[in-house]
Amino acid sequence: MYLSTVSRPATDPPVPGPGRAGRRAALVSGNVVALGTVSLVTDVSAEMVTAVLPLYLVLGLNLSPLAFGVVDGVYTGATALLRIVGGFVADRFRRRKLVAGLGYGLSAVAKLGLLLAGRSVPAIGAVIAVDRLGKGVRSAPRDALITLSTPPQSLGRAFGVHRTMDSVGAFLGPLVAMAVLLVVGRSYDAVFVTSFCIAALGVVVLVLFVRERPTDRADEGGSADGAGEPAVSVREAFGLLRVRAPRRIVLAAALLGLAAVGDGFVYLLLQRRENVELTWFPLLAVGTSLAYLLLATPLGLLADRIGRLPVVLGGYVALGATYLLLAGPLGGWPLLVLALTLYGLFYAATDGVLVALAGPVLPARLRTTGIALVQTGQALAYLVSSVLFGLAWQAWGPDTAIRVAAATVAVVLVVTAPLLAPVRRTASRKVSR
Which keywords appear in this protein's UniProt record, sorted alphabetically (predicted)? Predict the structure, then answer.
């Protein structure tokens, strides 16, 4: 029966005892570092494109706020359902590294697709969908590899280190894009070609240095080589939603996704308010990434110490404060510094910590599928949020739209705090075993 599979303690990675194993638990594994390096390189590539995309679409192609909201939502959410497919395939065949590699490869190829799309908005949307398909396919297997390479009580630290390395790439990406634009003029094609070359390097690092260790499969409650274990079925995978803790966290992730309106809108609002020169526009993303870089590991450690739920909720408080600043009286450098710092704090407190909260309540055998369900719920909600925010901007103006977004954050926090409290207790019991 499926429920017996979920409740069986052997499905979770063993907690190291004292001695040498306990000392090793204080550090992140080599697999986490290798995956962090892949994410660092890939994020340099991705953020090069992300940093110039709002300018390219809104100012270069004259897209309306609603049209940009649709494209921005597609960039994150349109291929969200494929996260579940990628997670299920990775669990069924126990080939998480291979599925992740396919996702990274798709995203790399998509960078060249932007060259062929030209000024056609439908073609650009299709290429962006392919790029997000790659991200959707790779995210859950990558995060599952992290959880299966880390003891439960150190998941906050592991995800903090991984997200720190990831944010180094996000920090460098806009700088590389700006350097390319300064050297060749406002040639977006040069940015896309450079982005492809860097993304291809990330795939090489994955192939050479990331391992899907036999011990990862042994942690799944079976033999090291998986012999004699039945393959994960579709019924078993979707049976996760019949279990209270996974169902609660998937629902909460979807609600939290409704609270975020998208980086492009935040940066466009700052550019509009402060009249930031277009050449320096990528530095807005750099500011967010710098805050994320500095805060991801400390907040991961804090989440391991005080609990992951308070850190996640605190991150969304920072998001609501960011939205209020964008509609408030503060201006100039104080606004830029404070808004970008809070925005980076939001990502550092939520991105990996939410997965770390979910990890212990998901059976190792279905870990990738469970993480994919969480990420899919959040991404689909983000797609809806981006479209609605673009519509609100067009109908009511940017100031009213961002105030509504801040109010939405407050409502979502009130709903998700009691929804996730039982998940926190379940996770704490699993970690203490």
Answer: Membrane, Transmembrane, Transmembrane helix
Query: Which residue's entry shows tokens 């959707």?
Result: 136
Got the DSSP string for 222-263?
S-TT-TTPPPPPHHHHHGGGGSHHHHHHHHHHHHHHHT---H
The dihedral region occupied by 422, where left means phi > 0, alpha psi between -120 and 50, and beta the remainder, is alpha
Torsional sign, CA 227, 233, 238, 242: negative
Half-sphere exposure of 346 (CA within 13 A, CB side): 25
Q: How far apart are CA 97 and CA 104, in angstroms?
A: 10
Task: Round to whole Å and give the CA distance between 323 and 316.
Answer: 11
CA distances 252 to 89, 179, 320, Å, are 24, 40, 17
Residue 29 to residue 42: CA distance in whole angstroms:
20
Handedness of CA 216, 220, 224, 225 (dihedral sign): negative
What is the torsional sign of CA 203, 50, 112, 175?
negative
Token readout for 77 is 């959410």
Per-residue pLDDT 10s for the chain (433 aa) are 333 333 333 333 333 443 443 444 446 788 899 999 999 999 899 888 877 777 777 666 777 777 777 766 665 655 566 777 777 787 877 888 898 999 999 989 888 887 787 777 778 777 877 887 888 788 888 888 888 888 888 888 888 889 889 888 888 888 898 888 888 876 778 888 899 999 999 999 999 988 875 444 444 444 444 445 666 777 777 777 788 888 888 899 999 999 998 888 898 899 888 887 766 777 888 888 889 888 988 998 898 888 889 999 999 999 999 999 998 888 788 899 999 999 999 999 998 788 888 877 888 778 888 888 888 888 888 878 888 998 899 899 989 999 999 999 999 999 999 888 877 666 555 555 5
Rg of the chain on CA atoms, in Å = 21
d(CA 34, CA 36): 5
